[in-house]
Amino acid sequence: MTTSTDSEILVAAGESVQAALDTAGEGTVVRLGEGTFAENLSVTTSGVRLVGAGSGRTVLVPGATTTATSIPPLHDAPADVVSGIALHGVRDIAIEGLTVRGFSGAGVYAHSCHGVRLTDVEADGDRVWGLYLRESADLRVESCSARGSQYAGVAFAFCAAADGVVTGTEATGSAFGVFVDNSSGVRVVGNRCHGNAAGILLLHQTYEGELPGGVRDCLVSDNDVRANTLAAGGEAPDALGAAGPPISGVGIAAIGTQRVTVVGNHVHDHRPTGETVMPGAVVLASSADWGGSDAVDNTLEWNTITGNEPFDALVATDPSAQRFRNNVIGTSEPAQLDDHAPQGTV
């Protein structure tokens, strides 16, 4: 039975979470019991916390009917897909302790929001994206997991000043584990990315009909990035990373980025299993030919990058415009990257 107080609404399995959200005011906690809830959700009130009993214990799956939402259509998806939890134009939203499983769109899709906190949220087998945060700011993805999506497990898209963090999160089985797509001010710290086509991808690229982009002032630190050997890209609409270039065997790639620091990461066991435009485990390259920008003023230091094929590190842009210091790198192109540090710094 659904029960409520002035600041908390309790919802048991089999009852309507959306009905509780529709009555929740700012500052309300909507608390879900253990069990399975068969519905998609639309959050339209700011200042709400949606709290489950823990990922794997509270599970949201598609229902027989679909809750309408005002959120714009999901990028790179058919028009009729359904996302598990949609947040549109709201502030100060927290979602904690639940699994969002098997939706045809994204697990969680936030658009035009400020102040979104995702903690212990599991996106499991959501078809297009896992946790997808777009045109938003003040974003936190903490102690989450995302697996088995066509594009990214965790994505920040067109967040010009994201002030975003993804930390303590595991991303596997997607085209990209963590994707920083035309977003700036993102910190990717202390995550585990494995079993994707690319573990962590930061990309500035111009898309027809999209907002101006750029990837600046980001930090990629202390991540364990291993064995991202899936193959993505292709023309088939249901392919992993469909319509994108072929990518496989990439650990961390920074393409067209500015003032991005990659520090203290462990990048191991990457081998392409298909065609790839990035034949290295760590790749730094320009995107100017794709309508993006040259990669400048980026820093790679204190990374351990070994046991990868064909290159541990590939720098396909001007090395003298970057900083390389104190890395352990097995093979690289060009060789001896630390020798290219500006002003003789190694």
TrEMBL record:
Q: Where is the Right handed beta helix domain?
A: 83-266
Q: Which organism is it from?
A: Prauserella rugosa
A Pfam family of this chain:
Beta_helix
Sequence intervals crossing the membrane: none
Q: What is this protein called?
A: Parallel beta-helix repeat protein
